[in-house]
Amino acid sequence: MNxxxxxxxSMDISFPSxxxxxxxxxxxxxxxxxxxxxxxxxLEDLRTSLCEAxxxxxxxxxxxVAHMRVDVRCQYDRKQFQIEIQDQGIRPFSPPERPYSIxxxxxxxxxxxxMGLQIIAHLTDESGFxxxxxxxxxxxxxxxxxxxxxxxx
Amino acid sequence: xxEDELTVNTRQREGVAIIDLIGDxxxxxxxxxxxxxxxxxxxxxxxxxxxxxxxxxxxSAGIAILIGIVTEVNxxxxxxxxxxxxxxxxxxxxxxxxxxxxxxxxxxxxxxxxFKSITTT
Lengths: 153, 121
Known about the structure:
Shape of chain B: globular
Strand order of the largest sheet of chain B: 1-2-3-4-5
Radius of gyration of chain A: 16 Å
Strand content of chain A: 15-25%
CATH topology of chain B: Transcription Regulator spoIIAA
Largest sheet of chain A: 5 strands, antiparallel
Order of helices and strands of chain B: EEHEHEHEH
Number of helices of chain B: 4
Low-confidence stretches of chain B: none
Helix content of chain A: 25-40%
CATH class of chain B: Alpha Beta
Number of strands of chain B: 5
Radius of gyration of chain B: 13 Å
Oligomer: heterodimer
CATH architecture of chain A: 2-Layer Sandwich
CATH superfamily of chain A: Histidine kinase-like ATPase, C-terminal domain
Mean pLDDT of chain A: 87
């Protein structure tokens, strides 16, 4: 995990690799973000992208093995909210050649799934897997702050 | 695995088969949604409305189920529309391309009017 020298607040959550827990994490992180002045009009983006990242960790990184953990770290430093989602990496992330369009999916080319990263990329300001993480896959996403709005501290 | 949070109902209104999706649309919704779609299709419905209500959570697995419905709608020469989505989920539906295959309406009444305008032209 990155060390941020201007960190204002942080929160760590660990949960088992069971679908549905991403909702619990989402609600906790939303509360954390709201408390620290996260732009209300982007809360839905945060909620959706966080759930997608957690599902990826559960289904792909940890292959739905319930006792494998997913760790979520949220950090706020006035300029941005950063969330890292760490799995235990039973299956290392391997980037797809390209995302399939809906027309291709309807034509039976490629899986109907596989839209999570595409959705996250649209809803966040930065996102991607961190390289060379020995503990598994670590996905990082960032939301930039509106400095005027987040001047509560 | 945590509890499924979706209720699915089907009904008819002015020649439109309405599938109410009340709650979360996730991977757990697949059987309920597909069963409801099959039911209205077996009744001979040509116009199908997915009417979303109280949808706090729609994820990519849920969207994949809906893309599967679009596949069947195309195969069965039906017309599909969706209504009741929040602005956020309307944005997501447009983002993934679903809006190319299903008209998006604010609510059920608007969707019914939309179907009428299509069928009378």
